[in-house]
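Structure ticket #2291
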Amino acid sequence: MRNQSPDERYEAFQVLTRFGHSAQYGHAIALFAVVCGLAVNAFGSPPTDPVSTPLFTFDANSPSVTLPSATLHPDEVLRIFQPDLQPEPAFNSTNIGLGQPGDDLDAMSFSKGSIPPNQEFIFMFAVDRNTTGDVPPNPVLRSSEVPYNVADQAARGHAAADAFITLSGFTVNGPAARALRGPVLSNSQSKNQYDEGGHDFGGKPETGSRDYSSAPEDGVNGMAYEMPESARGAPGPMPAFFFSVAPMSPSLLTLPGNSPADIFVHPDPFVPGISPQRFTSAADIGLQATDNIDALLVLDHDDNWQFNDGDVIFLSLSPGSTSLGGPVPIPNISSNGAADILSARFIDPVTVVLEVFAPADQLGLIADSDNVDALEMVFCTDPLACGLGAGIRLIKGDWDNDATVNINDFPNFVTCLSGPETVDLSSGYDPLCLDVFDFEFDDDVDLRDFHRFQFVFAP
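Resolution: structure written out below.
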């Protein structure tokens, strides 16, 4: 059979829609699928109002640093210089006192010391490979074609190299109560591990948000904007760079501190020849030397590179850290404590308050295995609106992901047609069908969905 032109296929589609709910419908669309079958591109659609990609690190178990062909290392701060390019080092790791084989940069932050106390923000965070989330996507975002969150991406097999934003708002003093409208016990995916229209980390597996994968996945374990970031950008001066390193990193023997819960500072990591210094020790902020800081956000109030009056540190600890479950655990930690965001506030030279600042459920993380593995902030006064604008999208009905629902998507609707009963995914039914064509979110693809499909169809 010869190939039909787009105009001919559209005319055929119009004819088919006249069958309505008749028994002939199924036979007709099946024939149409043979005529118009097309390939699938399973990437998601970029955010409508994205935040920029921060500098980041991959952990020591990431295929991007462990494969024989890998050129990246777990102690390197990486950047995406231009959309669709591969990650590259932003500066030499020796600049900050690392660079030995086995070093792993575990958390990092540029100072946000200039933020006013009433500035509202949301957290952007990453999770590890054991995180499941277990909280469904926010229903408002899902119905608005922003369906991806931690639980969704973990189920698809590639959440560890993504970035997510909270749907709860905060100031440095605590939750911004007036921003908590609508369901908040969830989060929204703002960065993918691989290509999502340039809004990604260039990591592995090389899949989009819509894909399912069992391939080894990279793990983002550090994120840091070089300047304060808002949903539309807010330039500022270059601040100092703060970081911690993973346990067993050889450079802990030569850095000015030997604990993975010590925080180090470098005045400008882009300039070689300057030695880092210790910003604060584990003990100075109420932690144990055996703890491990694996997510970090520093507000150095006076930018003097010392933990003193007015300074606030937001952090998260890795699972198993002594302060999460030892003889004297931090009060009010939830689950295993590794998904809570803690704050350490300098009150006076003998008083530092270490407490839970944002419990795990405010991030949409409630499973016992959940773990925050990187941390940043994004200026935002309406978390739900920012989640909608900065979230990676799935355009309902757009199977080939060209931002248009048209005749090219129709053959796949035919393939996905299941009838008005909940489908059994264990039978081999493609779960992507429900993502793209289940307009009613009732776990099937039937004629009711076809009715909605016609409304979004563009010639």
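Closing remark: Residues 1-42, 229-236 have pLDDT under 50 and may be disordered.
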